[in-house]
Amino acid sequence: MPITINGSTAELPDDPRVSLLDFLREHQHLFGAKKGCDQGACGACTVLVDGERVLSCLTLAVQCQGKSVTTIEGLAPHAGMHPLQEAFVAHDGFQCGYCTPGQICSAVGMVQELRRGVPSHVTADLRTPAIALTHDELRERMSGNLCRCGAYNGIAAAIAEEFERAPT
Amino acid sequence: MTPFTYGRAQNVDDALELGARPGAKYLGGGTNLVDLMRETIERPVALVDVTQLDHEIEERADGSLLIGAATRNTALASHPAVRARYPVLARAITAGASAQIRNMATVGGNMLQRTRCAYFYDDDGGSRCNKRHPGQGCDAAEGINRYHAILGASPSCVATHPSDMCVALAALGAVVHLRNAEGERALPFTDLHRLPGDQPELETQLRPGELITAVELPALAFGARSTYRKVRDRASYAFALVSVAAALELDGDTVKDVRIALGGVAHKPWRAWKAEDALRGQPATAEAFRAAAQAELAQAQPLRHNGFKVELARRTIAAVLAELKEMKA
Predict the structure, then answer these.
(1) Measured between CB atoms, which of A17, A39, A121 is closest to B94?
(2) pTM metric for this prediction
């Protein structure tokens, strides 16, 4: 059973040591997902596997057999940019841009989690199924994505604006 | 990474057969194991992917929950029964790691992450570590040990178990369901992990090839009055300096029953039996909470840089109990 990447099928590597991140970058030549720390600390390698945000550096490619992977290259359905990419541009949600693909994939997954009612560390009432994307919720839920340029204010503004524009 | 074979188990029998090979390891989300393999600190000859096994959460008639070991951390923290009846567990899980890691990590894998410290990781830098190389010595004991253990440590190892989820499981009296080729058994969660003693490389009571199939949360009538507090250097995505999981049952103004466990202070999730014993039957007052915390921490043996953890643990226990007293559960 092969792997699906941005809608196209691909054969998995023979060597099980290949991480999903290296598979995407070195085998599939999809350079969007970035290798920041390669140890699960920075979030630059975040991609969506069956719609869930995960760290591709700590995922073995063979673990994704039969699964569907979406990278930053696969987010916009046609030519042009995903609305969240537009929002990052509008709000200066980056300086060097290295963390940006991970930030955007993470934000897409984060919004889906919020819609499903997944609680976070700062959710006051665990019983409520409807959680608002407050300032604190947004920052807590995005805390797995580091930005060494410190563009956090722009990143948070971009995500908040796009969520408000298309909350469902 | 050193070479290994990869197999995906379709069922428990399948996993046990593949896992019987000497040097094989079970693979959950891989968030700790794959990282350690890349550092060649872990060198399994075979990985048995058990993420396709049981990931159901069964609500049983007796009020208990049976959680399949392949349940992802996010799914467990999101489950309505956990949120309503065991909020301490949902709070502990969401306090841990990042959302990406919680989406990957399984319940079984979370339990079996390594007890570790920076010296354990520092193989390339030449740090000595009895976990990596038994008998080599421990550079953490006299090194920078701000994050290290204050309870139950030994001269051979002062590392702490970093899981948040496990602190809640210890407080809740969880039971771990295990299988190997010889059969199945159940182990109190508080017996799963070992203290370091003179064999810190052995972190659990698991037998060769044994697989965690599920974890059981017994019914706890006062589970709704429970919470988790984590004290750390930054507000998110950091290990605990000290954490407290607790549940409180009141009879008027008296403590009828209580559960307390500590994280960030020991080689294993630390059930605070002495504090619980000191508090049962006592008035639910700040003085009694403080005395219970002192009963537990009296045995603390801090290192050069982590003496602050003793008072931090006492204060956090007392603060969490005070919070639970006021909680509308």
Answers:
(1) A121
(2) 0.98
